[in-house]
Amino acid sequence: MLKQPTPNVLHHHQQLPLQRWQIFLSKVELAQKLAEAANLSSTVSQLLINRGITTEEAAQIFLDPESLILPPPLEEFPDLATSLNLLQNAIAFKEKIIICGDYDADGMTSTALLLRSLRWLGAQVEYDIPSRMHEGYGINNRIVEDSHKKGVGLILTVDNGISAFEPIALAKQLGLKVIVTDHHDLPQKLPPADAILNPKLIRESSPYRGVAGVGVAYIVAVSLAQHMGVSAQSILAPMLELFTLGTIADLAPLTDVNRRWVKRGLQQLPKSKLSGIQALILMSGVQPGAGGESKTGNKGGFTTNNSPSSHPKSLKPEDIGFRLGPRINAIGRIGDPQIVIELLTTDDMEIALSRAIQCEAINKQRQEMCEEIETEAIAIVEAEYLTSLQQNRVLVIVQPNWHHGVIGIVASRLVERYGVPVFIGTYEEEPTNEPSASQKIRGSARGISEFDVFEALEYCHDLLGKFGGHKAAGGFSLSAENLAALRSRLSEFANNCLELQHLKPLLKIDVQINFNQINQELYQQLNVLEPCGINNPDPVFWTTDVQVVEQGTVGKGGSHLKVTLAQTIDNHLYKIKAIAWRWRDYFPLPPRVDVAYKLRENQFNGNTTIELELLGVRLPTQSHLLFTSISPFLRTTFQYNQNHYTCGVYQNGSLNELRIKNSEGVFLVVSPGCNTGLLGANREKAMDVDLCQPQYDGLIQAAVQALEELGVGAGLTYQY
């Protein structure tokens, strides 16, 4: 039910989302040129430019992924030929194969994909996935020893193994053959496997470079069928569907070959013949939307003849990212991965529905656990850490009785809320009053764009047990007695790489539009960008100085904000509805705001309308820099990003302006009420720059802060 604010608080300004807005500069001439060449609107061509697509050739490949010329995988992956020979021999000689998988969506879809394809090719194959709670990630000595006892001849890892030197060395000592298929970052010393397939080992320009673990599994499966001279037509559609599920759920980049295959898979999924996929779609309530037709073709690489048909319905990546994927991932987080493997490998609809019901129940349990832990974490942060966040520039929070499987999700939500890197952990057993070396903490970390999580963990390596990850996320363990030292060390690292202006979530915004431009025609034009995801995000638009006509909270506990916005253009009022997920804390919004948003299609009672999904809101930017009673003779120096600057307020005619000069004599001039500034050695040859860009926004904030330290901050206000 929609909850309205009471009249006495309607115009009371509460807090707004803490955000940095980075707005792409409009490149009008290039956008127009690209629009004419690719037969697009200038808005869509600007969106392509924002994604690094600036030539007609690049636009052609992006708009029609089937035109991408793929080199054969055998030419790209050095150990692929060896892997295919090992697998073919194992099948021919009835040698037992064990697939060592992982408990996330990528690892489980990879496991299911290879189980299906290898069994179809006649292999004797089983699988083993380590326990998240008791063993942790990746192949281990227990799996190797169990495999040896069972008479297994070949171990095939999926989505893990690249860092497992010791277990793989043990496997080789016991006489087992090992193929590692993985996509994670490379360690300093590779494991002694018979073959290693990892896109990080191939050339950076390869179209296969961005595949996830399930992408490597898909390449192995299709290549093996071709290597054995078997037509893969009957098994190709199921493998493509599993590839699509795992690739999107693992947040792999939707560019290059991933874009090509995912686009096919999304069109294939609604008509899937896999019982497990049908059951998942049924339980999640996903409704396939309209999808455009794509051209067919075999342009190199796999000649599978499985190009998209003219089937009119297609899923979108968010259907997997927010509906199907979480139901799979929830099992790996707090359940038994065997449920998902059975779901994705069974051909019995009754079994599939039973497993899908289990996924649904466990996902609801996961959601409740996340909400409970997030609520507790926020209360702790507000009570104990909020005042020191700017000083520490990192949040380290550890509590007992939190579930290891879901704290990573909570870490992401805390990053979104507070704008700082978050390291969150829980004890592996109930702690006593005094931490001791015997008590262990296991945790997850999430970063921001200017903070490298893996580098931070390496910086603290002597305080940690096991750790790993990449720039954006990681996992770690440590003795409880090292917790205080870890807090201090992480704060030291954060202060070395983060400026104060970095401590706000970054919102990247594509194009400014007005409400009179928002219609079905624009929405349909955006379909050429699909599938959107990592490295090809959904377009984000913004509109300035709109009126909040109606607003209220909806959903469980009033956690979401539903509003009606309006903009007056040429004396005509344009209204549009919007939803803001998890924005209860920002209710009520002020009466006039700038808004940043995605476009969403809403279908209700046979009617289709375009609505907004709000991502950002701020006070209108008509007064970006305000001067009230400040003296025009202020001067000071300051440092920003390890560079020296001078700044001051100068009189220009009847107005004051802020000037910032670097050591090379280049000025940035900011006038009150302007969102653009002048950059150059002199005013005559200066160029216009967008002050919303982070490099200028942060510099201005640093200059304003330096002037405020002179004790004159009351006369200078910078809105951002």
Structure description:
The chain has 720 residues and is an alpha/beta fold. It has 4 domains: 7-19 and 507-619, OB fold (Dihydrolipoamide Acetyltransferase, E2P), CATH 2.40.50; 73-351, inorganic pyrophosphatase (n-terminal core) (Alpha-Beta Complex), CATH 3.90.1640.30; 393-487, Diaminopimelate Epimerase, Chain A, domain 1 (Roll), CATH 3.10.310; 623-718, no CATH class. It is 36% helix and 23% strand. The protein has 21 helices and 28 strands. The protein has a 6-stranded antiparallel beta sheet with strand order 22-23-24-25-26-27, with helices on one face. It has a 5-stranded parallel beta sheet with strand order 3-2-4-5-6, with helices on both faces. Strand 19 (592-604) and strand 20 form a beta hairpin. Helix 9 packs antiparallel against helix 10 (233-249) and helix 14 runs antiparallel to helix 15 (349-385). The protein is globular, with a radius of gyration of 28 Å. It starts with 19 loop residues before the first strand and ends with a strand. The model is unreliable at 1-13, 290-312, 622-630 and 712-720 (pLDDT under 50).
Topology record:
Blueprint: E1 20-23, H1 28-38, H2 42-50, H3 56-63, H4 73-76, H5 80-92, E2 96-100, H6 105-120, E3 124-128, H7 141-149, E4 152-158, H8 165-173, E5 177-181, E6 195-197, H9 213-227, H10 233-249, H11 256-268, H12 275-284, E7 289-290, E8 313-314, H13 317-334, H14 338-345, H15 349-385, H16 389-392, E9 395-398, H17 407-418, E10 422-427, E11 440-446, H18 453-459, E12 467-469, E13 473-479, H19 483-497, E14 506-509, E15 511-512, H20 520-525, E16 541-554, E17 560-569, E18 572-580, E19 592-604, E20 607-618, E21 625-627, E22 635-640, E23 643-652, E24 655-662, E25 667-670, E26 676-680, E27 687-690, H21 694-712, E28 716-718
Parallel strand pairs: 1-14, 2-3, 2-4, 4-5, 5-6, 9-10, 15-16, 18-20
Antiparallel strand pairs: 7-8, 10-11, 11-13, 12-13, 16-17, 16-19, 17-18, 19-20, 21-28, 22-23, 23-24, 24-25, 25-26, 26-27
